Amino acid sequence: MRKAEDTEVSISGRHPSWDNSIRPPFHPSHKGPPMTAFTPRTPDTLRIADDDLRAALEGRRHLLFDGGMGTMLQAAGLEAGALPELLNLSEPDAITAVHAAYVAVGSEVVTTNTFGANAHKLGDAATVEEVFDAAVRCARASGARYVAGDIGPLGALMRPMGTLSFDEAYDLFAQQVRAAATAGVDLFVIETMTDLAEIRAAVLAAKENSDLPIFATMTFEEDGRTFLGTSPEVAAITLDALGADVVGINCSLGPAELRPLAARMLAVTEKPVMVQANAGLPHVEDGRTVYDIDPTAYAAAVRGMVDDGVGIIGGCCGTNPDYIRLLADIVRNRTPQQRSVEPAFTVTSAQRAVVLPCSEQRIAVIGERINPTGKKRLQAALRAGDLDYVVGQGISQQEQGADILDVNVGMPELDEVALLPRMCEQLQASTVLPLQIDSTDPAAIEAAVRRYAGRAIINSVNGKRESLDAILPIAAHYGANVIGLTLDEDGIPETAEARVAIARRIVNEAARYGIGPERILIDCLVMTASTNQQQALGILRAVSACREHLGVKCALGVSNISFGLPARELMNATFLAAAFGAGLDAPIMNPGSARYMDVVHSFRVLNAEDEGSAAYIERYAGWGDPYKVPIAGGDAAATAAAGTGGGAPALDEGGDPIRRLILSGRKGEMKAATEQLLATTDPLELINSRFIPALDEVGVLFDQGTYFLPQLMASAEAARVGFDTIRAHMPAGSIAGKGPICLATVKGDIHDIGKNIVKMLLDNYGYTVFDLGRDVDPQEILDTVRARGVRLVGLSALMTTTVKSMEETIALLHAEAPDVKVLVGGAVLTPEYAARIGADFYAKDAAEAARIAEEVFEA
Amino acid sequence: MESSPNIDGATVPAPLAAPVLYRPEPAERPRINRAEMLRYLGYTGQDVNEELSARIERIAAELERSVSPRGVRRVFPVDARARDAAGEPCIRLAGTTVELVGRDAFRHLKDASYCAMLACTLGMESERRLRTLGGQNPLDATILDAACSAYVEAAVGAMDSAVKRAASDLGLASNWRFSCGYGDCPLDAQDAIVAALDATRLIGLTVTPSHLLLPSKSVTALIGLFEGDAHAADMRPTCATCRMRSTCAFRARGTTCYAQG
Q1: According to DSSP H, which parts of B12-137 are helical?
Q2: pTM here?
Q3: Number of domains composing chain B
Q4: Contact A711/B18, CB-based, under 8 Å?
């Protein structure tokens, strides 16, 4: 019986909405009532081969791995680019010989020759199970003490940049994990990963499909980041939190270059740190292939890392038994130095870590703008599936100085379980900030936290039994942080003491799940001063008490304080400053308010976070104090942005300003000009008699070659500012859209520039555009057509090879939605080709696409 | 295991046998050819106002400042006696799994002794920026797309020059850069090219299931190296081998996608 099954809380049993096809539950026996005890992952919950391996996992003993496998195989004649994993089947003796050579020089762990043994890479060549079975037999035959099941990258890039989904990646890794466990490995080494999302999927697959130790290492470049931008700190924090038992670094660089990167990992995790460096690149010397770093220099650099605290060592590309022999000398009769890491609240994205040490107060601003409550434009965007708008809200908060983004997409008519992870994925493509996943639905929280590439914050748990039972297991399983709200079955208490009492209950309950106070942000819940004036300072006393007595950090949604009062920003800023004084760590606020951010920047000086006041001085040295300097109005800014005009058509300064600004593509003055005309002109009249003719004229100029593409687009941008200005002046919904159009780059194709240009123009002509992005499944297009009543679908394909997929999409649409018209475009298409694949229209460029849309919707 | 031509230099001259990384220091980064970038944007001499010109220049300069191209190249012996699955002559690169089918690749490499294989990418940061701008600011995204295309072209040009110099030092002549997708050479070969160069590990280059390179601003190319006169060394990639020639927007405007002269 596997020990972990007895002790871990069954997550899957708690949420019936959980799709078991996504995550084969590791706890099949726990479909019954939830258990009350929870044991966090420790050596006690794992199946560990023997006491020495256990000592290594506990940091009490060094462990020596082997060196490069590919190097040895290529030296023996393996073709570049061939699958070395197949040799386990075809030439098992040769593979065993490589393992045995490492065992002979002292390697305690040999790594199976299964780096690329996943279903994606193997294809039809062999099954994953066959390869692992053979590979483990080869490794065991070497007489090695421990056999590590090797899992490398899948060889396909994951979403949002690539095309592979988290769940697909998870399934591929889970298959490897089960195959390796069945074949009898002692541990997993997940290595050479550059994508934090991918290594998370692999670690989770190992954790949920076996009870063996997990060693997880990533590969960093000279700039100290992986190819996808992850730093050593982010890797160590995130993988440690998720459940890797050893974290580390392998490949890419030599040991001297990796030493500082390993030191950065050692500073943020108490788990053993492992390094397997390269021996540099090969070159030919006297007819022999040698690597840049010789064994002696290599070992000397590794010794430095061991001195720093690295516990587990081995080699990667270019290393051979000559190198490992010298590494064995380093760790013989030596025990790793004991390390301790200063406790801290840590939250990460794939590209950034926010670290708030427990011993001091540091400010992290949590941007609150991605939350549809009370925001009509955001609600409309979410309803229309316009995630670009939401991403724009994230980008602007990042630019305004937020450190973390709260993400809430809760609206009654939306499927939050599907939307929340998708929203997080899109935000991660375009922002670098860690995310705080905010929902009242535990299933939506788990769906997002599970797939989130980083260590998230969950917003939120509260003192109600139901909430504690639903949320804390999720935080525990995924290593996430959690916001604890000081409310319970009796509501929000009035006194500071009662709030602290609820916080204490949350902290105690969290401890039972292995969640320490350093992972908790308590939110003492601000009440408005207009009705609960007596509580205002009491809340701040509760903040101080929670920090002092419970060892937690505190968050606060600041702006509630001013509800019902005038000059809300003034009140909020004052309260924010007072809250900082009381110990607030993480205000949940709008970073778009310069006033709040002024408080944040100035408090960071008082708090000695902004060392030498450097950032403050840089920001405010030339600042115009708004109490003393009249604030420049919009008009001044607008006139300053005026360009020089130009362009072919004569643009008389005295003529129609709308035509002039659209034709010259000057968006800076557009708002003021539109507002001026709105004072005297009917908005629809303005659109139909000024905007549309100007856009048509631009289309003609583009057709004639008088304008080139950027000019066409600059004109569209200027028009867009005008349309937005008009819309802002009109009651919502009073300008009827011309009709819904769906756009997509077809399945298999990743080029979307052309499609985005078409979208920009169609937007301007007043169509409601549903942009499904790139690499879009035909079925998703059909679903959108049906759900949104779409009459025209625009498909883009740039490659000859993906036109096939365009043809399939058209066939599906014509069969299932015969009324819908399909417009196609893309570099390789011609009118004849378009007709042959069944398209109703072909547009050679965006301007023509707009004219075709006109034709379709006027018909 | 049977021995085949490999890095130990059985057939490739030792100075060319090892993989070579291209990682220019900031000062050595290639410069984006502005004229080429404008050509990608469809520019044929239009009168552009200062505001737009400044915007285009700002995006190009920022790209040069913040993104560094990376590449890897390696030389393999050419085997032109091979036959593909259909029994047609094809090119194999010895010591790799690369097989190039079709007449155009065959013509390019049949007389070459070696093939220099190149891969170059602007990396995931360029991909991220293109994605982000695509949803937020289509004009900037379009300009950046053209800037990235010109930038990766400049980078692969620098790699091309370096390998030609190295070959020339050994008395080898070179022809021009040929890529999958030219003429009748299918894209399928990208997978083997990226694998043979170990380009996923060395420069972060991946291939999608539809055989497109990701990051999308990436190039792989094949240059023939010849003992004696380079076959077709004086030939440029022209519209004649381009499958887009019938629909090409550049040709419609009376220009080409590559610099002439």
Answers
A1: 14-17, 34-40, 50-66, 103-109, 124-136
A2: 0.91
A3: 1
A4: no
